[in-house]
Design brief:
The protein is of the alpha+beta class and about 450 residues long. Helices cover about 60% and strands about 10% of the residues.
Length: about 450
């Protein structure tokens, strides 16, 4: 069964009240269980911070981006391991099946008895390219970590926007239902007037059409509300058999003072995730250029080998295998037919292109900051205007309804007032969402964490 969320004071408890058919996935209650307790039931209650925190813990994409950080760490250790000693052991058994080695016409022969051997080989090699590869691995970890935190920011902001959208849509449904009740009463009054012969049927029919229009608007709003809740379930990784209850109201969360303070915050490029990634990408291209340059560098290799041999016979034989052996090799590239030179030049050009991209990113982010401040100011002004517009339209509608009952307004006046109110409410919903979206986008650019302390402090 579907219920509605009271927009003035909503809390969770075991008992559900205010049930209205088709109003979406809402339940009102008197006690709020913890998210952990609700997680095991069919109803899950969330404040805005709880919803965002739950999404950060359970979102599948975030879990994958966390695994990407661990993969980058494994790749780095793989690069470091190539510079560390590699030790291998061998066990061997050979049998020459009684063969003897003869020394020409001397008549001398040496027995080749079966034998077993054990060997240990330790080797390592170090080059500039390997060192650079290890440094690239460290940079890859940092980039994966920044990408993960950026994904956290995006998921939290998406859940926040959906939370607001659900509250606004719920408020719209409630207003429409209240207006529907008023219009139905007016239709009943009009029909009674028609039956009494003091009004025409066309007047009652006009209001009946408005009843159908409001019912259609409510159904459309409820379907949109269900889509919002499904999107929340997807972002938060909540099963579709769960009902999500929002325990905060729109009035509680509309922090106008905080949003306007954002207009005066300084834009620090280094705090922006997109700039951090661009900066790290530039450093990556620089290291790849150095890696290409080390193709001209030497490679130092060293090894140690131990071999122990045991003959399974008392016959005289020759053992020409030394038990211990060490070696050292310095490999210097001399001529590669221009292959190394071409690779190095290409890496230099890629690095230069990335430097240009970094400068373009700086400029684009600064321009975006100015634009988002403008968007937030404009969205706030539109939101304030539409709040007043809804209040005025509601008052006009209520006034026309009273006048109609006393015969001082026509059914056309009622229809026009109801249509104006529906339009005002729709415009208000869009203005509220635009305002919240503008605030979230500016917070994202400034890297202002909306669910606690600064994201940068969590690094």
């Amino acid at each position: 069964m579907r219920t509605r969320l009271k927009t003035t004071a909503v809390v969770c408890c075991v008992y559900v009240f205010g049930m209205i058919a088709g109003a979406g996935s809402f339940k009102a209650a008197a006690q709020q269980p913890s998210v952990q307790d609700a997680d095991t039931s069919s109803v899950m209650c969330f404040t805005l911070d709880e919803a965002m925190s739950y999404a950060l813990e359970h979102n599948w994409d975030l879990q994958n981006s966390s695994l990407a950080v661990r993969q980058a760490e494994a790749d780095r250790w793989g690069a470091i391991a190539t510079m560390l000693p590699q030790v291998n052991g061998t066990l061997d058994y050979s049998n020459y099946m009684g063969y003897e080695m003869e020394f020409g016409e001397t008549g001398l022969a040496i027995a080749m008895p079966p034998y077993g051997s054990i060997g240990v080989n330790a080797a390592m090699s170090v080059s500039g390219a390997q060192i650079i590869s290890a440094l690239i691995g460290k940079l890859s970890i940092e980039m994966a970590d920044v990408s993960h935190r950026q994904s956290q920011q995006e998921v939290a902001e998406q859940v926040r926007l959906l939370y607001f959208s659900a509250l606004v849509s719920t408020q719209t449904v409630e207003l429409l239902r209240r207006n529907l009740g008023t219009v139905r009463k007016l239709h009943e009054f009009s029909q009674k007037s028609v039956d009494a012969g003091v009004a025409e049927q066309v007047d009652a029919d006009q209001i009946l059409v408005q009843v159908a229009t409001l019912e259609s608007s409510i159904n459309e709003a409820e379907r949109g509300l269900e889509m919002i809740y499904n999107s929340m379930r997807l972002q938060m990784n909540v099963g579709f058999d769960k009902e999500i209850v929002l325990t905060q109201t729109l009035d509680e969360l509309m922090d106008v003072e905080h949003s306007l303070d954002l207009l005066y915050d300084d834009f620090i490029l280094e705090n922006n995730f997109s700039y951090q990634l661009a900066l790290q990408s530039t450093e990556l291209y620089k290291k790849q250029k150095n890696l290409a340059g080390w193709a001209y560098g030497p490679t130092l290799s060293a090894f140690y080998q131990y071999t122990g041999r045991k003959y399974f016979s008392d016959e005289m034989t020759m053992n020409m295998t030394p038990p211990n052996m060490v070696g050292l090799t310095l490999s210097i590239p001399i001529f590669s037919s221009g292959r190394n030179y071409t690779s190095f030049q290409k890496a230099k050009l890629d690095y230069q292109k990335q430097l240009n991209t970094l400068e373009n990113t700086k400029m684009a982010l600064n321009i975006q900051h100015r634009q988002l401040k403008y968007n937030l100011s404009s969205a706030y002004e539109r939101y304030q205007t539409q709040v007043k517009n809804v209040e005025v339209s509601q008052a006009v509608f209520d006034n026309i309804g009273k006048k109609y009952e006393f015969g001082h307004a026509s059914s056309l006046d009622v229809t026009n007032a109801a249509t104006t109110l529906i339009t005002a409410q729709s415009t208000y919903v869009q203005a509220a969402l635009d305002y919240v979206t503008a605030q979230i986008e500016l917070e994202k650019l400034l890297n202002k964490n909306t669910y606690g302390q600064s994201t940068q402090e969590q690094k």
